[in-house]
Amino acid sequence: MRGLGELEAAVMDVLWRLPGPHRVRDVLEQLAPERKLAYTTVMTVLDNLHRKGWVCREMDGRAYRYLPSASREEVTARALRDLLDSSGDVEAVLLHFARSVSARESEVLLDALSDAGPGSAEEPRG
What we know:
Elements: H1 6-17, H2 24-31, H3 39-52, E1 55-60, E2 63-68, H4 72-86, H5 90-100, H6 103-116
Antiparallel strand pairs: 1-2
């Protein structure tokens, strides 16, 4: 994911894959087959993700349980929005993108746009 280091992205992947909040040890166990990591490393990564706003945490006894502050889909949509906003020519980017989507993706977009109804879309940016 944009804005995340390799280990931060791996931790976020674990949190997005598994439902509910998780302790540091739970995340470490999920990462263990692929990586040899110390408990304190994963704890530091989760603390950094919390500080950056990627995860929320709740106290459970003497330990925190962590969960993503937004879904993978919401984060991806925000990243796309940021890319559009920084593109300089939003219309041209959207036209190129529209020409690249599959028939199924086109259906999803058309359905979403028709469900939005008139006047419900945000003002164009950029």
